[in-house]
Amino acid sequence: MDNRVNKRILIVDDEPDFVFMTALTLQHAGPYEIRGEDVASHALPAALEFKPDVILLDVMMPDFDGGDVAAQLKAHPDTHAVPIVFLTALVDRDEALPGSIAAGGHRFLPKPVSVAELVQCIEEVTAAGAIAG
Amino acid sequence: MHGRSDQVASAAEDRVDSGLPSDRHLLQTLLDHLPDRIYFKDTQSRFTLVNRAIVELFALQEPSQVIGKTDFDFFMPEHAGEAFADEQSLMLTGGVLVGKVEREVLPDGRRYWVSTTKAPLTDSNGTVVGTFGISRDISSLKLVEEALEKERNLLQGLINSLPDQIYVKDQDSRFILANTALRMFFGVSDEQIVGKTDQDFFPSDAAGSFLAEEREMLRTGRCIVNREARVVDRGGREIWILSTKVPLRQDSGAIIWIGGANRDISDLKVGQANLRQREQDLLNAIGDLRRAQDLTRAVQVELAEAERFKSTGRLAAGVAHEVKNPLAIIALGIEWMGLKAAADWPSEAPTVLKTMQDAVDRANAVVRGLVDFAAPAELNRSPEDLNELVRRSLLLARHELVRHHAVCHEELAEDLPRISVDARKIEQVFVNLIVNAAQAMPTHGTLTVRTRLRTTLEPAADRCSPDVTRAGPENLVLVEFQDTGTGIAEEKIGKVFDPFFTTKPVGQGSGLGLTVSKAIVELHGGTIGILNRSEGGCLVTLTFRVEGDPYGQPSEQADSDRRRRT
């Protein structure tokens, strides 16, 4: 962890409106620095450049799906420790239970998601990461 | 001979006065009118007097043509010699030959049978002067006798050649005749069997029943035809016989004998049994085939259904994805507006935002229900205690019951067999039913949840194979949710499981709750039904089949399953 005051959040979702709206609400909800990407393949370069504290990652995307992107991030030494929160509109009850943890230790949040849920989740994973780091 | 003629002559003279012909004439007339052949011979067996029957036999005209001749002049030498020897012997011994049956053959080839009676002839002094005799033609009698014997031999040959056991018994059920087959069966000779009874050959109870039925036959004249009976032969082998017995009557009509025939049908019986077994096997095979066909058909239907679910499931998931992203954006937008609400916003603004948020929640619920309905997906089954699932569901839905001031009664049967279900999905169903019940009782009411074990059929009394048991009764666990609410209008009760049907006020229900519940229960092979109670309110009944030996499931396994899930 560097000495940044604000937590950095990278949002990756193929829906630009969702990226925009999530960024807008999160900026208002806390002292976050936000960057959005609406192309899955841009996720890794963006992460390397932006050095986020947490990545909000859509599961269903046209070119890469969220799992592929997560694998890329995990494989890279500079990004492998960054916590990922999956956002999914896929209604699978096991995945969709709020705050549930999927294989690989990642969190899942079902869409639609409330700002409060997002903030709580971000705070939890970054706190855990801080302790771990 | 001479002296005797004198006696006859003198007797004739005595009768002259009475007007009668002479004795000689009387004798000749008598002799000539008798059909039997009568002759007198001297000591040398020469004919001295013959009647007309003899003249005719020898095809002559006058007795004089015979007088002075011997048998050797008329018969073949064998017979003539024998007759001569007989006559010489009679004269020597003074004996009488009575009814000797002789076969006479004439040189012209005629043959016939006679019965001859001969005696020595003595004069008034008792001196033997020759012989006399009388021969009766018994050829026709002999023919009848021969025919009878032939017939007897034929019949005897027939019954002895037949494989069936044939016999005749007298009025005391003693054998008077038994053919070879029966004698062999009993292991006795022809002489040995006569006078014997069934008691000598069969166990006494069998013999007793044969005797009783024969007495009955003698009394009533009834027949026994083709009656099957099991008897034990000499070697202790059990055999089946087909038995026929008939009363045999005298000309007077009185029954004096019992005739019978037995046929060994053991092989036939074995054949029949085999045939029956094969028939049964065939029926079983057909039954198996039918069941297999039914199963195949059921599997095909299930596959088609599964395929449909899969494609509609994919469709629903796609739709959900496309709908939920916009919903997510709208939801976040509403929240942002709420957070940024400026002081100069109209006073209705919070209400507008709340209404919009509710609309998003509703749309989200519909999409979720749709996906649940379209894709109940695979079941994650494990043996579960339904009572436990009921309790957990009540806990999950407690808030809804409390909100409607509803009281809950649990009537859970102890010791229920575990049922293999997907616990989360069944909980979803139970919660749904509990929430429905609570919402049907807006101000107050009682929800009764009941579980019990029921057998569809009592086990059949004659359970002879495990297959019968398996095909027969079935154990069911019933789960009932009974409320004291408003009930459902009769015209609507048939539609409650239809998609998007709801009795709830607009905004309260997605119209998919019962539809999804039904799909889930049926996916488990169970049933769900709903009816209005006469006391008011609804009764929802779910059934789940108990499969295998549910009590035999180790409870640790079930516990660890549950831990893994929660």
Describe the secondary-structure layout.
The complex is a heterodimer of chains A (133) and B (566).
Chain A: E1 7-12, H1 16-29, E2 32-37, H2 43-50, E3 54-58, H3 66-75, E4 84-88, H4 93-96, E5 107-110, H5 115-132
Chain B: H1 2-14, H2 23-33, E1 37-42, E2 47-50, H3 52-57, H4 77-93, E3 97-105, E4 111-122, E5 128-137, H5 139-161, E6 165-169, E7 175-178, H6 180-186, H7 190-193, H8 204-220, E8 224-232, E9 238-249, E10 255-264, H9 266-339, H10 349-374, E11 382-384, H11 386-396, H12 398-403, E12 406-412, E13 419-421, H13 423-440, E14 445-455, H14 466-471, E15 475-482, H15 513-523, E16 527-532, E17 538-545, H16 555-565
Parallel strand pairs in B: 12-14
Antiparallel strand pairs in B: 1-2, 1-5, 3-4, 4-5, 6-7, 6-10, 8-9, 9-10, 11-13, 14-15, 15-17, 16-17
Helix pairs in contact in B: 9-10, 10-15, 11-13, 13-15
Outline the structure in words.
The complex is a heterodimer of chains A (133) and B (566). Chain A is α/β, with parallel strands linked by helices. Chain A has helices spanning 16-29, 43-50, 66-75, 93-96, 115-132, and strands spanning 7-12, 32-37, 54-58, 84-88, 107-110. In chain A, strand 4, helix 4 (93-96) and strand 5 (107-110) form a beta-alpha-beta unit. Chain A is globular. The termini of chain A are close together. The model of chain A is unreliable at 92-100 (pLDDT under 50). By secondary structure, chain B is an alpha+beta fold. Chain B has 16 helices and 17 strands. Chain B has helices spanning 2-14, 23-33, 52-57, 77-93, 139-161, 180-186, 190-193, 204-220, 266-339, 349-374, 386-396, 398-403, 423-440, 466-471, 513-523, 555-565; strands at residues 37-42, 47-50, 97-105, 111-122, 128-137, 165-169, 175-178, 224-232, 238-249, 255-264, 382-384, 406-412, 419-421, 445-455, 475-482, 527-532, 538-545. At the A-B interface, helix 1 of A face helix 9 and helix 10 of B.
Q: Helix- and strand-based class of chain B?
A: alpha+beta
**Could you tell me the radius of gyration of chain B in angstroms?**
59 Å
Report the major sheet of chain A.
Answer: 5 strands, parallel
Counting DSSP E segments of at least 2 residues, the number of strands of chain A comes to 5
Number of helices of chain B: 16
Rg of chain A is: 13 Å
Structural class determined from secondary elements of chain A = alpha/beta
Percent strand of chain A? 15-25%
- Helix percent band of chain A: 40-55%
Q: Count every beta strand of chain B, where a strand is a DSSP E run of 2 or more residues.
A: 17
Question: What overall form of chain A do the CA principal axes indicate?
Answer: globular
